[in-house]
Amino acid sequence: MTSFRRVSYALATTLMIVSAAGTFAQQAADKVFVSILKGPSGIGSAWMMAAPPSSPGVDLQFVTAASADLVTAKLVSGEIQGGVLPVNVAAKLFNAGVPIRAIAVVGNGMVKFLSNDSSIRRFSDLKGKEIYIAGQKATPDYLFRFLAEKENMKAGKDFTPLYNLASPEVAAQLAAGKVSCAVLPEPFATQALLLNGNIVSPLNLDALWTERTGLESYPMSLFVLSRRFIESRPELVRVIAEAYKASIEKTLADPAATGQLVETLGLGMKAAIAEAAIPKSAYVYIDASEARASIETLLSLFLVSDPLSVGGKLPTADFYSR
After folding, report:
1. Among 40, 135, 174, 229, which is disulfide-ready with 81 (CB 3.0 to 4.6 Å)?
2. How many helices (H) and strands (E) does the chain have?
3. Considering the entire predicted model, what is its pTM?
4. Cβ neighbours of residue 299 under 8 Å, at least 6 residues apart?
């Protein structure tokens, strides 16, 4: 073999080894999957999804889900290591023995009472009315029932709650004048208001909650991670937490750009709706341990109305990641 051929052979061999090493390193990188819910809960994570935080030896990927049920199933199976869930769903999973921990509240109170009936000014004006509520046995339902009872108004007796329409349909029907009263979370409340400027919000549910509980707000969305992931990758947990917090800060600082990004990422809403809803929503990043009082106050409403919806009890201190 000539000198030139020996060099060429050695070079080719080296390149093959480097290539194989690169492929092996890529295959060896741990894949970590975090689920993001389409709709309101996904808005605050848009910037983090667009530029996933990195960590040596880890391939972090975000996957979208159309419902909390899908996120729940993937957490139980171990297919994903984390996700965003309604507070009661996360508590129910924990109480059922699924090894998850609450990392942070990423969305506070976003529920509005809307009406196109100008005669409604206070809770007592709802007597005899039909009220469309987005999500039976979900936070909007139990929140409204709780506040109504504090005003001596009982569901099924003084007013009739209806649950047969999904949030987008309630917003559309309210705007068209086919529905008189509705309880809607953001951004669907904003959607209705954009469609019909005559719709008003005569009952401030957030203010009434503060008046009745002494708490500034109530949590809507909770970011959770698996216990095993938290224990094995504490540094990556910190990186993800910082990225999520920064994403929410950017969401609040630039609703227009965030709206465009939300539509581009396919998070379930048009840019204009997301942009208009962000300033009226309550995207936050609050460590779950710091939010324990507000989480437990909200879960207590579920416990009174439907204990099974939270697993029959309040979650223990281990639910809250430190």
Report:
1. 229
2. 14, 10
3. 0.87
4. 87, 88, 91, 310, 314, 315
Q: How many CB atoms lie within 10 A of CB 38?
A: 18
Cβ proximity of 71 and 81 under 8 Å: no
By CB atoms closer than 10 A (0-12, 13-18, 19+), residue 171 is: buried
Placement of tokens 């492929």 in the chain = 23
Cα separation, 262 vs 50, in Å, equals 10
Long-range contacts of 249-258 (CB under 8 A, 24+ apart): 249/285, 250/47, 251/43, 251/44, 251/46, 251/47, 251/278, 251/283, 252/278, 252/279, 252/283, 255/279, 258/43, 258/46, 258/47
**250/255 Cα distance (integer angstroms):** 8
Q: How many CB atoms lie within 10 A of CB 272?
A: 15
Nearest-angstrom CA–CA distance, 166 and 134: 6
- Residues 93 and 100: their CA atoms lie apart, in Å, by 8
CA distances from 202 to 58, 159, 178 (A): 50, 17, 19
Per-residue pLDDT of the chain (322 residues; tens, 9 = 90+): 443 344 344 333 333 333 433 333 334 458 899 999 998 999 999 999 999 998 888 899 999 999 999 999 999 999 999 999 999 999 999 999 999 999 999 999 999 999 999 999 999 999 999 999 988 999 999 999 999 999 999 999 999 999 999 999 999 999 999 999 999 999 999 999 999 999 999 999 999 999 999 999 999 999 999 999 999 999 999 999 999 999 999 999 999 999 999 999 999 889 999 999 999 999 999 999 999 999 999 999 999 999 999 999 999 999 999 7
Residue 79 burial class via C-beta count within 10 angstroms: exposed 0-12, middle 13-18, buried 19 and up: exposed
Could you give phi then psi for residue 72, rounded to 5 degrees?
-60, -50
From start to end of 120-257, where are the E strands? 130-133, 160-162, 181-185, 219-226
Token reading at 38: 């389409």
User: Which among 92, 80, 1 is positioned nearest to 35, based on CA atoms?
Assistant: 80
